[in-house]
Fold each of these.
Amino acid sequence: MKNEANSNQTFLFGKKNYVFMLIGIAFIAIGFIFMAGGGSDDPNVFNEEIYNWQRIRLAPTLVIIGLGVEIYAILADPKK
């Protein structure tokens, strides 16, 4: 067995990549939080709140932006 105590472990991504990953996760989480709700307590009554602009436009846009930030974080060069 070789002694691997001498080998130096390095991370795959740099600090910049991890910061962008956290920002992307925050965008995705906020998007899913905006999508939540809008239901009715009574199943016989329809609630128009489900068609709110925040659930139809804003929340999916935030999720897509978050996914784009995640892709950038993965593909960005950590040495720059």
Note: Residues 20 and 72 are 8 Å apart (CA to CA).
Amino acid sequence: MTADVYFMDLEATSKENLPEKLLRLVKKTGLAQRLDKNDLTAVKIHFGEQGNTAYIRPVFIRKIILAIKECGASPFLTDANTLYLGTRSDSVSHIHTAIENGFSYSSMDSTPIIIADGLRGKNETAVMVGQKNCEHVYIGSEIINSDSLVSVAHFKGHELSGFGGTLKNLGMGCASRRGKLDQHSNVSPKIKRKTCIGCRECENHCPSQAIYLKENKLKEKKAYIDKTKCIGCAECIVRCPTESVNINWNQTVPVFLEKMMEYTLGVLKDKKNKTLFINFITDIAPKCDCLPYSEAPIVNNVGVLASTDPVAIDQAGADLVNQQQALPNTSLKTNHKPGEDKFKGLYPSVDWEHQLDYAESLSLGTRKYKLIKLKTLAYKKS
């Protein structure tokens, strides 16, 4: 059985600009059939870290909010606090960051921001899933308490999952701090000290103070990890300027991806027919929007996808990116041609397809899809 995935390109005309085209896409996907009047609707987005510029533009999020309100539902913008130290690790700084990045009460048509897991990431609900890696998953309570959910994800590369789209936006993004730690708990980095320059970047950004510097026999200062303190957040991996922090990929990443899908199962457990998923395949950066900067996109902007199937929409997103010719002078060094796997080019040790296969085995959706392209409205020539 195949799932319908609706697609709009980024062509606009004098008859219909891109925000209006997005509104038509959302309606075409069946938003009105997913929401009931007065539904408290969680709009799960990523507000972007301070300094990051690749996150979804607020003008598009506002249009989605207006579409939800047209259905008579009551939307609120939400995300859960981060495990790593940054500008979104508690609700106060998280909301400040959201506002600075353009997601204010006024710009979002009087829509509130409610951080799903509370002030310090401890407001959580344990959801029974009974799967091989997780018996329970720990989700931000306001996600669970909402009547319906609209996921709006920025599709891009990711250091641990190969890419991040709808499934990551749900499984990792909706988890409380305890839930995020649970998913990362098997990720144990190691430091290649031959290339470590002792810059303290990893030490300064470690939320559990598990990293320290020590002199070797040559009296060079090198970084070391205390595995008894390490929480597996992988922050040191993305911070290291010499790529000296590595993971035992074959053992840890498959379990990480499976846990993330089991958390997605928990998020969606009581929301059957009450969800809609949107992927923005724009500003396709090689790494997550959690970084305080954005690298050059690896391919040109593609468009926007919408579906009621979270697996199909991510499969379609990956396919569309891989069909593109890579842009020059980016961190993508191989697999530049159309049809070549861009995410394998970025992260050759990550089997990104494993998350889709496992999600399919959990009956979260299907990898088989039908791509339905939205026609661009244009005036007829006289």
Note: The longest strand covers residues 148-154.
